[in-house]
Design a protein that fits this description.
Elements (H helix, E strand, L loop, with lengths): L2 E2 L8 E4 L4 E2 L6 E2 L4 E6 L2 E4 H4 L4 E5 L3 H10 L4 E7 L4 E10 H47 L5 H16 L6 H5 L2 H16 L2 H6 L4 H21 L5
Parallel strand pairs: 2-8
Antiparallel strand pairs: 1-9, 2-5, 3-4, 5-6, 7-9, 8-9
Bound molecules: zinc ion (ZN).
């Protein structure tokens, strides 16, 4: 991952040399691709002379790791490489203290583990609860709206179930016994599928106005479904 970045002023900038050269301070030759600093436009300095040779390189790409390693490193540097094609320095990563990187890595691992465990717990719970919820919702819907076509009943129940999955702290049984929840789900479905509501919204009609204007249609379909007659 590269991204144009001139480093923040307080951080040293380390360059990846694009040619062989030698340190302007100690005279030690370096090869293309080595980390160097610049004392001046034509004064490359090796890392030991620059006092940064104890730092280790962390390539760009893992944002959380980079952020944490930078936070824990008393001294860090930004590593850039000059792109001849784009005529600018591009950020390649950072140099940080090894202890800081180790600490950052440990934290990121903990997070990843914790996230994975939470995901597992959620999906197990969801699978158990949702099938039950879906079945009961569909049964109650068909009982209350016998005229509702089966495929639409399924769609309504699945949608309600999806929404329900995102909620916490409500028991399925408490929710399922409430006919109002069924009515709301059914009416929302009718509004979207059997009226011009969505088109009105798309055309910029205010939500309240759009709802008002399709109310009669929604009532008509809902009454038909309740009475056991499928709507056209
Ligand atoms: Zn040197």
């Amino acid at each position: 991952m590269t991204r144009s970045a001139e480093a923040t002023p307080e951080k040293p900038v380390v360059h990846i040399s694009f040619r062989d050269g030698s340190c302007s301070e100690c005279g030690e030759p370096f090869l293309k691709g080595r980390f160097i600093l610049f004392d001046g436009p034509d004064r490359p300095v090796c890392l030991p002379c620059g006092g940064l040779d104890h730092l280790i390189f962390l390539p760009s790409g893992d944002t959380a790791l980079t952020r944490r390693a930078t936070k824990y490193s008393v001294l860090s540097a930004v590593v850039v490489q000059f792109s001849r094609r784009r005529k600018r320095n591009e950020r390649q990563g950072i140099l940080v203290e090894s202890a800081a990187l180790e600490k950052a890595e440990a934290e990121c691992l903990d997070d990843a583990d914790a996230r994975a465990r939470a995901r597992d717990r959620a999906s197990v719970k969801r699978e158990a609860m949702d099938l039950d919820y879906l079945k009961r919702f569909t049964a109650q819907l068909m009982d209350r709206y016998p005229g509702c076509p089966a495929d639409e009943a399924t769609a309504i129940a699945e949608h309600a179930c999806e929404k329900y999955s995102g909620r916490v702290g409500r028991s399925a049984s408490a929710k399922i016994l409430d006919d109002r929840a069924i009515d709301l789900a059914v009416r929302a479905h009718i509004r979207h599928v059997h009226t011009g509501y969505d088109r009105l919204l798309a055309a910029g009609t205010p939500r309240a106005e759009a709802r008002e204007s399709v109310l009669g249609q929604v009532d008509r379909v809902a009454r038909k479904w309740m009475s056991g007659k499928a709507a056209s």
